[in-house]
Structures are given as C-alpha cells and as structure tokens.
Design brief:
The protein is mainly beta. The protein is built from three helices and 13 strands. Helix 1 runs antiparallel to helix 3. This is Thioesterase family protein.
Length: about 260
C-alpha cells in the first residue's frame, strides 16, 4: 500500500482534482505502467474515475489482482488497470496551425471551470498548463481542435531514464496535457462534462521549454457519454503520447 495526494495546484473543477493529472499520477503506481531502468515509455494504462478526486488529502493506493485502486474515507476514487486496446493517434497539425487555432478557443471568455490546471484561462503561465485548443480542419468528418503547449520550468522533474540532463515534465502532467483537449473537441460550453475514463500511452515525456502540439478529436456521443481522443506531438512532428477518453455530461454547479 502507498499513498497519493492531489495538491490544489492540480485542480480541475475548483474543489476537486484535474482528472488527467490524477489519472496519470495513479497510472505511475501501476506496475505494468512503470518503465524499467532501460525503458523510456509507459505502456497503456486505463483509469476510471469513480468520484471527484479530493484536493490536499492523503489517499491510499492498493493493488489487488491487477487492479490499482485509489481510495479515500472508505470510498473508491479511481481504479487503474493495464490498457489492452491499441490507441490510435489523432492526426497532427504543425505548430503554426495550432497556434493560429488558439484564437478561436471557446473557453477564453466563458468556461465551466476557469481555474482548471489544464485549460483554465485564469491560471498564470507559471501555474497552469494554459492549453487553449481551437478548431482545426476535421479528418474523416471528425471534429478536431489543437493548441500549442510549452512546458514551464516549474513542471520539471529529474528523470534518470533520459540522457543529456534534459528536463522533462512528469507522467501526471503529461496525462493532464492530454486531458481537456479531448473535451474541447466536444461542445464543453453547451455540454459541460467531466472526465470519467482515460486510457493513455506515453512514448516519451515532453521536454521543458520546447513547443509541443496537442490535438483532440471527437469520436462519438451516446447519452451522457462523449468519446474523444488526443495526441501530444513534438514540434518536429513526433508522437510523444496518445490518449482516449470517456466524458460524462454534468451540471457544473455540482463541482464548484
């Protein structure tokens, strides 16, 4: 048994954890999802969020029969298992296209959770990720959004898996970067949602100070659920990480 805390910096809604960050931090506890000293990639992990992750409290992490469970006060907050499905990357765009798309970010002036760590416009550059995706050309009829992201030095962690002293963001931050861009490929203003499930594979952690591109894609809606995907690309056009999500439509006032 180990423990996990979601610091208030990593909120999604103002009183609960960012779904992507929490899921990524839990994924780091999955044995299948932890790289060895000779590996540089995290295989797919699927995390299902059962309730809003509380902030600044100690939660327990246990593993039984291949399921890693995050619990608090006797209730299950999230469950993680090795991901078995192949994840399909969202077609990328170049940096210039992604940067131009940011001007049409729907959450810039009206946002269900404006202090969200991933996409909140009220977060400072040295505090939140400030990923502001705007619409780009669809592929095969699927709506896509894109944004640039340059990881701030405050997100740096020391990873011995990479040579040359390169500073990179953490696994949890990488999951957070893959999170909300998927949601914005759906109509988050007309249909506020929170993350219900996320599956991600991280091939390489993003480098601090380098410009990246994050692309999200809408892949279907059924009832209260929306299915989306996202991909983190390097500025040179390499896939760094891919994810797929299930979102649940909610009344945002219940999360404030």
């Amino acid at each position: 048994m180990s423990t996990l805390i979601v610091p208030s910096r990593f909120c999604g809604p103002p009183v609960s954890g960012n779904g992507g960050w929490t899921a990524g931090e839990l994924a780091a506890h999955v044995e299948h999802g932890c790289p060895t000293d000779h590996a540089r990639a995290w295989p797919p992990v699927r995390v299902r969020l059962r309730q809003p992750p509380p902030l600044d409290v100690t939660m327990t992490v246990t593993e039984v029969d291949g399921t890693t469970t995050l619990s608090h006060d006797g209730g299950v907050v999230a469950e993680a298992v090795p991901g078995l499905d192949e994840l399909t990357a969202v077609t990328g765009v170049d940096v210039a296209t992604a940067r131009a798309a940011e001007a049409s970010y729907a959450g810039a002036t009206r946002h269900p959770f404006p202090t969200c760590f991933s996409c909140g416009p009220e977060r400072a550059a040295d505090d939140g990720l400030r990923i502001f995706p705007g619409e780009v050309a669809p592929v095969e009829g699927r709506r896509r959004v894109a944004a640039t992201w340059t990881p701030h030095p405050s997100l740096a962690e020391d990873y011995h898996l990479y040579s040359g002293g390169t500073q990179r963001a953490s696994l949890a931050v990488t999951w957070a970067a893959l999170d909300c861009v998927g949601g914005w490929s759906e109509d988050l203003l007309g249909r506020p949602m929170v993350l219900g499930q996320m599956t991600a594979r991280v091939d390489r952690l993003p480098e601090i100070g380098q410009t990246h591109v994050v692309v999200g894609e809408h892949r279907g809606t059924e009832g209260r659920k929306s299915h989306t995907a996202s991909t983190l690309w390097s500025g040179d056009g390499d896939v760094l990480a891919v994810a797929e999500h299930v979102w649940i439509a909610v009344d945002p006032s219940r999360f404030s």
